[in-house]
Amino acid sequence: MMKHTPMIMIVDDDPSVRATIGQALAALGYAVREAPDGPTALDIARREELSLVILDYLMPGMDGAEVAREIGALDPELPIVFSTGHAALRALRAAAGDDVRVLEKPFTLDELDALLLDRLAERRRARLA
What are the Cα distances from residue 4, in Å, to 16, 21, 50, 91? Predict the structure, then answer.
């Protein structure tokens, strides 16, 4: 039986951040899709089966909270992990709630891996319940 490779979408307006996270995810064995903004991310989310979204909070146009709400309307079970700097953390929690999952920049490969494994396991458990 073929094992499903989780597809992770990175949404960040900074191309170097997308590339760095994408390389880290590829090294961890994930398939990767990149989006430079909210509208592109929503287009990808409508067309492709995603396993998880890593979403920057501070972006021009649609901010991360707006993108998360729209993606959540498409797939309420799709795990979303916000990636943000310390300065935006308070605003993010105010917009998305205290239980939001945040990967604070800068982060290590181990921190990224642990959080993704945890969120993907939560999704599997939810689907089996």
Answer: 28, 21, 11, 35
pTM over 0.85: yes
Q: What is the rounded CA–CA span in Å between residue 90 and residue 84?
A: 10
Letter for the amino acid at 16? Answer: S
Domain ranges of the chain: 7-128
**DSSP letters of 85-107?**
-GGGHHHHHHHH-TT--EEESS-
Q: How far apart are CA 34 and CA 20, in angstroms?
A: 11
Domain 7-128 adopts which CATH fold? Rossmann fold (3.40.50)
Q: To which H or E segment does residue 82 belong?
A: strand 80-84
pLDDT in tens, 65-90: 899 889 999 998 899 898 877 556 66
